[in-house]
Description:
Elements: E1 6-11, H1 21-33, E2 37-42, H2 48-54, E3 60-62, H3 79-84, E4 89-92, H4 95-100, H5 105-117, E5 121-126, H6 130-134, H7 138-149, E6 159-163, H8 177-195, E7 204-207, H9 215-219, E8 226-229, H10 236-249
Bound molecules: 1,3-dihydroxyacetonephosphate (13P).
Amino acid sequence: MGARRKFVAGNWKMHGMAGSLSELQLIAAAADASKSVDVALCVPSTLIARAADAAPTLPIGAQDCHQAEHGAHTGCVSAAMLAEVGARLTIVGHSERRQDQQESNADIKAKAEAAHAAGLSVILCCGETEAQRDAGQAIARVTAQIAESMPDDASADWLTIAYEPIWAIGTGRVPQTSDVAEMHGAIRVKLRDLIGEEADAMRILYGGSMNGGNAAELLAVSDVDGGLVGGASLSADKFVPIIEAAASAS
Ligand code: 13P
């Protein structure tokens, strides 16, 4: 064990215009310097091509893709289109899309399969609401999301799980480390059920109000293999300390 490299991915959500590329280059420089950690940045699709040009060593990702290769889907973008402009990965199943776009587990599974078919790596998100946690259903809900949305042939070389408790996203609240350990351990067990030994190589990221102040503690939790970072990934001065914390935890 211990073979899983830490992975820190930023999710810029609907933030970032051309003026943000200088920040992205600072992040890329820190990522280059920290050789023991994998780093990626998922930017708005409008920025992917320029981001990939501006920081060729930093894997640039999308935040969603459509499950179809092409077709009459106004406003949508396929995985192959994202790959063509320089994306190397995509997030699927983020809770904001599950809520705002009513994406189902079946949709998310199809998106992950489409992304893989187009050569993209995938960060598959899962996470419970506060009401589900309060009702004692967090582990059941999250493991069911994974069972229903992860492709059957998923493997660690192209798919990463991100556990993001919805109530911790953008709120400044983080779960107790014991709750994070319990959840990540339960996810590992579910992954073993689903994909056997491959589960031990698959990375499970924590996301939700991760910042330079709490990253070291979260990244030291057993089965936490990195972070998916929203707000604190928007600037190098906030994101680089998280990359450094991951390097120290490696
Ligand atoms: P914050 O880090 O802003 O809480 O966002 C987490 C997230 O949703 C990353 O996908």
